[in-house]
Predict the structure.
Amino acid sequence: CLLAGFAGVARSQLEGAPDLPDDTIFTFGYADGPAFCDVDTGFSCEPPTTMSVVAGTPITSFSLGIDVGFFASSNLANARIVFVNSSVTEAALLDNPTICQSTSPYAAGPSVIVSASGVFAGNTLAPPFGASTQLSVDDPTRNGYWSMDLQAGELPLEFRMGGDFRVCYSQDGTFGDSIVADIVTQDIKIWGVYDSRTDCQADNSCMRTKKHRCYVMKEAYNNPDNDLAAGSSCVVDYTYSGAGFKGLVDADYPRASWSQEFDASYTAGGVKIGTTAYACGSTPASFLCHHTDAPCDASDHITPEIVGTEGIRIRFPAATNLLGNDTMPRFEPRAVAVCYCPYSTDLCTLTSDYRQQVGILLYYTSKVCFNHIAGEECEMDFAGASPQHRFSVRVECPPDGCAGDTQNRIKIVAHDADNDQPSWTTSLESSVTGCATAVHGRNARGQIVFPVEDNPDVDVLSGRTRNDFKIWNYKRLSPSGLLDVSEGFESGFMFDMGFTDFEKRGRGGVDAVGGETFDVCYCDGDCDQAGNWFKVGQLRFVPFQLVSATSNAAASRDELVIEYANQPGMLGMYRAPEDKNVMGMVEGGMLKLVEDPMVNISDDGCRDDPTTVFDAKYDRSLVFPGPMIDFFYQTAYNEYLGVVNATIDPNRLVFNNGTASNAITVKRAGTLAVCYCSSQVDGVCFNNQWVLAARLTIRGPRGGHHWQYSTHVVFRLEYEGWGLTPRDEIRIIPQNAECMDVATDQYGPSGAYTETNIKLKCPDPCSEVGQPTSSVHGGISTKVLGADAWMCNDQNEDCRPNDIKTILVLDEHWTELEFEKIHGMQDGDMITLTDNIQCNAADTPDECNDARLAVLKGIYPFADALQNDQPANAPSTYFAGHMVKVHPTDPMKVWIPVGWPSAPDRPRFVITPGSSRRGQWVRHSKAITKLEIKGERALENLKVCWAYPTTTDFPKYTTQVGTITLEDPNIMTNVLITPTTLKKNQMAPWAPFVVSFRTAGSETGRKYGLVQGPSQLRLQFTVATSAVYATFGDGSVIDKNTGEDELPEARQYICGKIFKELWSSDPNLGFPMPKGCFYTVYGTTQEITVLFDAKNGLKAGQDYQMVMTGVFMDEAREMQEYGQVFTMDDYLINPYTAIERGRAQLAKQPLAPAYGTDGVEFFRPDGVKVTSRTVPDLMEMAGNNEVTLALKGEVAGGGIKAGAVLRIFLWPVTQWNVAIDCSVVCIPHDDITAPCGAVQDCKGDALIPNFQLNYLRIVLPATMSQITDEVSHSLTISDLVFPTGGFFPTRFGVEVRRADDTKPDYVETVGNYFFKEPDDGASVGKLIEYYGDGDDRPFRGDKENVLYAQLVLSSTLFSAQQSGDAILRIMLPEGYECLYPETEGGINPWQPPADLGVYGDVIPQGTGAPFEADAWSGFNNTCQYSLRQNGVVYAGSSLVIRITANNPAIPLKRTDPRNRWRVELMAKGYYSYQVQFPPVVFGADASRGEFSANKPVLGKLNEVMLVPQVFAASVD
């Protein structure tokens, strides 16, 4: 096809130069031209005005057609032509002929037009003159022409840019002044894209091979949205100044396409050997097509965007998302030419239609590869990485995409749409954003994810000098170019999404399900220039987020997450389909479960390494054989591979190899480290790269518990475990049964009474355990300590709140929790935090976020729960909890082992403002039942089973907690309940009775000497029948009182309310001083417990008597059992073990009183009146004082008849021991009218046989006239043997019976009160004199010296009416100052420690101490104990008082008469005024040198020196 053009406008000759004729023509020839000569294209194929040519079309011939005459007369040897801009006119040429020179800016340079040789001899075309031929022209009006043809070596010509041009001719080729150039005024219009910037004119590859840098993704579209419709960042832009296109503008114009992929070859070292580029017109590369099963067709061609009048922008489609899969396996860099067609859709259909090459697209790839030497080959590449996986980043270069030097750099930056700007944007537009300004190593929140101390320094390290790829696989401190090829785990990058394990692995900085995307930015050189940075790919961080089930439709236990010991379950992680190529999320990984009791296993602890503390092997004893297959090292890598079952749920990577029956069963409860190997071959983890993926708690008890308790003692069980909750329960079953009883699986195993002899709901109603389907099915509820379950009673009720008050992160290791009250926890207790705790509103998301809040609480969400995509019966959270460390000095604080580095990133946690409660918490490591269990037969090794709650009505029993052995306590014989009066239903006055027993000696008794801790004495009275019940001393009923019914509520004043006297046959220690008493009533039982301090309990082989008040009713029978006595072991160690059990029998038969005149009866109110006295209203029993009692009788009740038997009960009954015979004289009312006669008999008798003679039995005269309210005889008793110990004002009880010893009546004396001062020496006071037991500040003026005083009071101090009625004073020598020490932790500061050296290993020690709140005081040299109402200190009890005092200012010798210690007692007793006994002066213990009467107060020597006689060193 010849396109001919003629000079359309005549022009005048230029002076002095041969001028081209006006009708000069030029012609172009095309090898494949006919297709372009279609008038529908809008291009001119015929003269006369404009020649139109498509850029990129090879011009195979070019001729100037010149008039024959001109041709013949011209010297054409040096003639030249130049293509110039169409703006060159004749006028301009006249003004400046040089504008046609090849160096002129108007000349079309090498970037616009090239010849076959690639050069033009100065950019000037030289025709081959001398070989001219005459042209034949059809136009008859024209003369003959001669053609001036272009030399063959210059052909073909190619216009590479669009534009408007003309031909400039010079006969001598100089285009200078000597011979003026001429111009052919015919225009040449090149249809195509152009870039006419000055810096582009001299570069023949400026536009054609202009590099546009893009990227492709593995199995994803190369755009931020992974969306085909979103296109890509591959945009070829010619909209800037000096660039654009020439051609028609229409909706269908123009079109763009691309070429075949370029090829490149490299040496083994990555040096480029050569590149094969494919020009436009070649078959377009298929990776940009979207029907990969067929070649690209016209539907894949691109319609550019027209900007303004000539601007053009070509947006390339997204590359296929199949790269790297089985359909299109090559995921590698690519390069293609950008091709342009200026025609419409109809004409730009063939590949050959796209002639102009307007650039090159360089598609880079970025790959995540293994670290270590494997990163060099990158045989397996990934789209990202999971936590704790070190990886290298490999940027693969398209042909000619990377220079062979070390100027390249990389950045891994937050995912941002700005980073996907075309690579030319930064260099051409005013804004500098995207990869140019993105910061390496930070995520979208600005959080540092690649800490500089543990990752390659991308600021200084390059990807080396290879042309084919760049790789960053360095250790942090490696010099540039040195890869890590050694063993170890230090090379490459590793995401660090936070400080704690969960932040690093489970959620990181992402507060939702799934991972986080990062962009990989690359610079090939001159990286300080913003325009040189561009995106080469993306990578993902995908955390380990556990899921709760195999799918949202999971139904069976096997398909739910492993949660309970001995229960099958699954383990899986959330993994979105788009993350299937992420390192750590690729199918085929395997797990290893490792016990983590200290909650401190890390990645190192997951590896198989016998040289480390942890050598994490598969533990067959931990993981139970599943229903089909054993889960251990031989099957973990096949049957338990991590796979995604896309048909069930495409978002879950489940470790069951796709088979739901491949469940995992963990045998033991505890904290598990879930160790994960994402790449393995036949069970061998690649490079031993095990990582800690998660940590979770397998709920259940710690096995191996063993309890040994006594029968007939109500007990509770406390056990340890993991993940314990208040909804768990336990059950006691026979020794030969199994906790997971398949036959009764729905209801659990049977613990029926017939097999276990266990009762529940004790002490009342104390029902026998039935079958598992009965109402009392054997399930025993439990309680765990927590904010709502603090200080619960022994029935796990009446709990008090104890919330977390403040939370303070101390450092990177510890956080401090402060509670409202003393928390009661121990080191190692496991807790979680729950409600009413949040981040400080002033904290930034980097400082405090959901992930950190979860870490603080120790409770983590399952990923599918966050998405509301889990089955209804699946748990929404899992936990690992925190092991607390108790604050060393503050009992209201604990530390938990979680923390964060210092500001500015340290979180601040606060209690939720406005809440009625503060921070909530739960302890999961211990649980306790109610005090409700009782065994009634000795049995060995009963099994205790544990169950967790289910969604059904029946808990699931899975695990054995331990075993329990029930033993019968030693039988205590001759335990008696002995009344004073035998009158039935005696009330007001309330008569005392005595409970007496003897502790065992010999081997059984040895146990008493082994009780190191606090102990108890328990009394039970059966009130099921109308027989016996105990009362308080004032006769009020002992009934349920929630303030005095549990051990923590035990107080000494409660003992005083119940026990009038406590006595022991032990002459040295007496009855141990109780620490306190408490009582309860349940069903038909009154239970009273006496609590003793450590090493101050009962003693073997001793007799004990306890005087109480009670009523014996109609059904009471002699020698019937109405109570029990339990002497209990150490209640801290063996709280439910009885050393002895005594069944208390009624010693005497109560008698019915008489009714009517047939009986005997005292007159009320003064039936027995004391008339003898020593002071008003008081009678001191001393010397030969006689006791005179005036008697009156009630006539209606028969009065008091002759021969009646009178019993006078001498109080305190345990202190009196009268003679067998006594003297009594009856003084008649009137010798004549109402004589009395001689008393028939007077004897001292014992309430308890063979013990104290503590009452008088008097047989009244046989001839005595009847005593009535008007006839009153008096009895004068003389020669009584008084108690040595003394007592404060009291009454006596008096009973009268008929002469046949029946029909009793009972009253208390009125008139004078009795009291007696102690005999000299009856009370004991002495100081402990033993090295190390106090007095460590013995010098004058020393402050806070601690001294220990031992006291044995001969008289009972009792504050009967009101507080302060009784007082104990310890008078220190003058100069001492008694101090009140501070009370710490509720401990009696006046009580001695349990390890005083003076007592050695002797138990008991007699170290009880009186203590009630605010009862002690110190002033001057006096330490005073003022008893509260009902407060008591029993006579004969050995006390040790810890005295804190400031020493006198002057020394005191031991023999100084002023150095005297004294004890003073004063009390009202039952009288109105206090009686003060004479002081007791401390004395030394002649039998033991460890006790003294006083302490010397030492002076201080000055200028003390030791001077040796010989200054030589010793030989030995």
